[in-house]
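#dry-run=false #mode=assembly
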Amino acid sequence: MTALELEGEGDDWRLRLSGDWSLASIAQIEVELGRLPAGLHGTLVCDWSRAETPGIGPAWALLKRFAEFAFAGQHLDIRHSGDPPHFLQLLQKLEADLPAARTTPRAGQTFEGIVGRLGRWSVLQGTQARGVVEFFGRIAAVLGRAFSRPQALRPSSLTRHIYETGITAIPIVALIAFLISVIVAYLGAQQLNRFGADIFVVDLVTIAVLREMGVLLTAIIVAGRSGSAFAAEIGVMQLNEETDALRAMGMSPIELLVVPRVLALVIALPLLTVIADAMGLAGGGLLCLINLHIPLVQYTYRMREALSATTFWAGLIKAPVFAMLIAMVGTYRGMQVRDSARELGRLTTVAVVQSIFFVILADALFAVLFVQIGF
Amino acid sequence: MPEPAATPVVRVSGLVNRFGTQTVHDGLDMEVRPNEIFGIVGGSGTGKSVLLHTILGLRVPDAGTVEMYGKNVQQLAAADRSALVRSYGVTFQNGALISSLTVAQNVQLPLREYYPASERALSELAELNLGLVGLKPDDGAKFPSQLSGGMVKRAALARALSLEPKLLFLDEPTAGLDPISAAAFDELLLYLHSQLRLTVVMITHDLDTLFRTCSRVGVIVGGRMITDTLEGMLGNQEPWIHAYFHGPRARAAGMPAAATPTADEDTHG
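#status=ok
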């Protein structure tokens, strides 16, 4: 039990410390110290003789409380008695040095503060926008140089990234495309069945998968898989100063790290989309066979009827654009990582969320464009 | 001091550590006495950090025992282990400050975990620990990435000191510092050692630090440890030890003249 007893009156006080004064009791000691009356003056003898295992932290809290008395302008002459702990002198010296080292506390919320924050935010947005343009420009510059110097495209690195973002993504992309088209066909069949128009399920699946869902689903899966991987990989390299090392050796991180990833995804995503399209059509066919008893021969015949010349290309043409968006957002956010592990996590999240957002935004723009030009 | 001088603070006996077919420690013995600064020295790859990790219980040895304050670390119950972990402070080679917390929050981290107190008390304690290692109160608001190398080492020491340990383990505390910062760190360590009556176990490559601060030195050679005072080490004829203490860098560090200031430290042990 920790206790702090104040005895005496007028100009002569005695403070008796007893019980456990180790760091473990710091919370209670803090409460006891808070109970000391504010108006003390004269002499105060601090008696340590009954304090058990005095700790540095509690002794410091006591000294800070005394310092507050002095700061309030009270004349209090403090002496320590009863075998004070050996580190007390060190703490007193530290306490005495402290006010000199302390600077003025920060001002609160003012009008200038708010305007200043708004201004800083605007400037920050401006510089970030410039950074994005600069990033885009650097990638374009590397690609431009590659015409005269093909090895700038780093074939070995490019193949590695095609493997990691493309080949290894095939199972999950195929599975999800298959399942989603089964769901669409199933729901479509239920509605169309009421009109006796079962056969139009084939049109529904074919057009939905080829025009929209194949490419959109693939892009979203790849954004989650590879967009995050790009940001995290490059982010850790930033934290380890690996990108600085590359720059110091006269090599461009854009050329070595960013461009291979962007190109790899531009190559891999359309190929994945073709696989997703095929699996989607297969899923629709399977459901039609089992649920609607439409034979596969009739399914393929109806599918050809539903297809126009542009249906397949209207989906596939979007894939390289989505790939550019995903890869550039991922690598850009990765290059932005500075200083801390938390920043890495934050920017990886931002990379995934933004790349999915940009993919859907671009998809909406494509939809409007295709309607306008009758594609 | 609670410990009688006879009981070693740390005693390692017959320690064996293997990685696959490679034996790093082969029957290593080590003893740290109360109130001394014990330096651990060895060539790269002789297992200095592995030894530290084993002592701290971060690695289970293949054979041998580690005792702290006379208790076998591997056989402690969970509650006793937790109490033991609180009784020593550790700094790691690169500081290992949590990068998403400010320096003050880093220092408060173990306090918050074990001794819940008011925010005011916690900020006072952070100020105290930063003051002890010679950092300014303003530095507490900075993030680890904003600190210089020397400040990181000091902040790591402040965090290690925050639970008021009697025993400190330091892994290469002056590595990567400029000579002036390293010398200042040596003085800080000596000051805290005498003022707070700490026992310090330190891995170091820095000959200046070794000569300035350590009372005894343990050299890992061939998987075992040879322990002696600095004066004793200077006369040791083992090839690696001779090369270490008589190489060009040792001469630059000013031995054997530099060995004399440590003589008064020996009386503590």
